[in-house]
Amino acid sequence: MSNTNYYTWKYPDIPEKVAALLSELKHSLVIVGVIGRSKCPQANKMCAFDMKPDVEQELADGQIQCYYKPGTNTLLLHFQTTYDEAVMGRLLLQQKSLVFDSFYEQVRCRFIRSMLLALHVCHILVYVETAPTFDPTLVTICQLLKYVREQHVLEFLPQLLRDTGTGQLLGERGRLCTPRMLFLFENYPVDEERTRECISGYEFQTEDRIYELLRQCNIVTNSAASSLLALPNNKQFVFYNAYEELRPDLLLQSIEALQLTMHKPDAKEEEEDMEILELAPFKGFVKPFGDSFEACQSEEQIYKESHTVWKFLQRHVQDALDGVFDEGSFKQLTHSSQCQLLSSKDWHNCMAIMHNLLIENANDVNCTTSNVAYHAYLQNLEESLNYEKKFWSHLSEVGLKKGISAYKHAAPAFYDLKTHKQLLADASLVLEDEGRGPYADAALAKLSDICLKFWHDGRQQCEQLSLRGHPCTQSKDKPHEKHSSGVVHISSCNCGHTQGRREDPFTLRQANYEFYEYMAGMCNLCVKVKKFHFSVFAPSISDYRAAAFEAAFPLLLQAAKCQDEPAAAGGEQDLNLDAAGDPYSQPANATEQALQKPEHTLSNGCSQPLSATYGSDLNMSIAGFGDSLHEEQVDSPEVSSQLCSSLGSRSNSTSSGTSSAGSENELILQLKERNEKSDNNAAINESLSDSLSDAPRMGHELVSTTEYLPGLVHMSSGCELLPLFPSWSLACVGPSSIYSHNTGLQEHFQSGFLSGANFLLPWDVHVRLVQPHKHPQHPQQQQQNNKKTQRYRKHGDRLALKIFVGFEYECLRGHRFMMCSPDRVLRGGADIERDTSTKVVNNNMPLYFPCPCRGQTSYLAQLMRIHVVTPKAPVNIILDPKVRVAKYTFTLGCSILPRLSQSAYWILRLPSVYQGDDILIAPPEKLEPDDMLAGGCLLAGMFGIAETETADASEPGHGASLTFTRL
Predict the structure, then answer these.
(1) N or C, which end of the chain has less CB nearby within 10 Å?
(2) What's the rounded mean pLDDT across residues 540-557?
């Protein structure tokens, strides 16, 4: 005991002298446990009792320090727990990687084990709080203690105690009694007065709050059997240390002592005080406070002396000694719930067993037991105490269920990846509304897996993209004959007479051929019109295939590169110069070779090429033949005709300038010489045009019958390959009289046109006929030729041609309109001027243009049809359209260009979708106003004029032998 009046030792090393003293008490030993929080480095909570360990000991969680004052019946047990800052700090330093949640759970679990032991081996528990206010987290600790005791301890403790022989001492409840809990606050609020009335009032106020909280959570009840702990009914159980400074700052004390030492009272001040007293009118003028003040001072002093922790504790110890311990706490009492006062020996035996069961075995990872409930306590206590984990996990499960329900409820029968991601995002928001905490991320991952499995379970959409970028909406797992995106457009037939619903195409054949064939069966005009037959692939074997362009035609690509290099070095290339920039136009050496073989060349009756301005030179396009052709291929009539036409157009350009200077706004048309040789050539042309619908027979030496062109015909595809189906359509819908320029295109004839945009543009072309050089002829033959040419020469050598043209655009909603310039939509007859037609004929027309229709979405209209009303003159209009999209220039793919019949209404339908060799060219999503030609354009100079052949006059759409003048 040394210089103190108490003994202290570390459990279980009890000194013999203390054991003898405790044994003398027999069955009157009251065990008091001191547990709670501390901030001192020694983790000592006995400062209020004026006790401390005699030697400094190493701190450890679960360590118990015992204190005993001789002459008393109280044995104090000081529990070192993780709620002591010093112990928690040591435990924190032992952590290799700190995770706050797991560390907090570990700290709380260890404290609950120590608290659980104290509840079973103590009669009174003193909970020490360093703060001046009550910590509500203690209520949560008590709830967890009650859960552990009722769900775990009572399942194994009575049986295990019965096996050890101490069951009779502790009773059925497995503890000495329902321990009474007292609260010791080491610090008093600074802003409160330290008087008897204020201190007592503050203690009563804190008691009321504690009792209300513990009562609401069923920690304290009216029955001792169902209560975790007890609170006295008529005694104080909250103590505030208001007068004594338990842990003074030694440095501050030294500074105050130094100040008192240095302060010396001044003698002059005392003399001045005496002089003031002498000024009093009579003796006793300044009266003392009197007896009442002294009595008040004595009461405060008595309360201060009696207001100690030890006296506060002894009142409750006396209740246990008097046998009224439970009567002062509960209204309902049973015989089994009476307080048991054991001897020192019996208590030590019980303490050893309880400490072994609740603390030591729990810290031993190798401990085994056959009791299932005890095994669950040892292994799963920390997990069962983690109510936050259960709470967050429950919230996450609830949120997960709601998220899955939201996903499944909103999911359609089949949907694509984009819809799946959107549904998953919406379901994740639903989950986050309910699920929070550390398990929310795991719930989101689980939600993603479940939704992905639900999507893959027969609900996955095909997602094959259409030519316009819409995915197929049918099931990916179920076979289907054709794809369908569910998107429907409005489009017109070939002749423009009938509009119908058009499903979003997935193949080039559906876009450019099958839909128009289907509409032709529904349109009563398409079945009557006369059509131009385009050359298509006719296989000669069953295993025909698409041609690999780069592997099949390396010479063509090499020639194209050779032609592109000098063109690039020459400067900027004009889009209007078609043949001059095309990689497959005839070079000069090929032309010279053709000139060296006049016996195989047809007569050339074309004049110089002129544009619609009638004054500028324009090179003629040669369609379908390139540098890769062998020399013997030039001997064919078609090639010879094209070469002579090109040569004539270029050689006569100089004479064109001379002629136009003499007669302005006139287009010179060189007539053919009518002789025996020309008649033979006409017969050859007639045979060529008659074979237009039989492509393999037309050029069996040039056209492949085993490989077809996978895309559309373009300037780089070569003449050897033909497409499987025609992507263009050319039809004569009737005579020229069906169009009236006063009313425009009527709805019953061409449906879907916007108001005011249904007019064709008049195009006046002046032609001067030039007679061929005359040779001496037999009189009978000359008379016969005069009869053949008299039908159009009787009008003179000059003709005024009236042509109507229209460039029609159509949007996906079925709206159609004409353009009066490359950047302007036709708004009515007022927009049509004398030179309006030259703006569309002589300029590159954009392939796409914003539709003027009103709607929430801005649609792009596409150039779909060219309307041509031919004149009644003895000439034919020739069509040679070229559409440039990206790096490709698409053409009709005809070796002999179509010749439009006289006085007729012709409509050329352009492809709906453009595709190169193996590249689909998607339409632009948006066009910039400054560059309307970025999406593609129709090159200028698509029209030509030729003399009407006698053999061809009765056959509309007859092929022209390329002996024509380009307009």
Answers:
(1) N
(2) 65
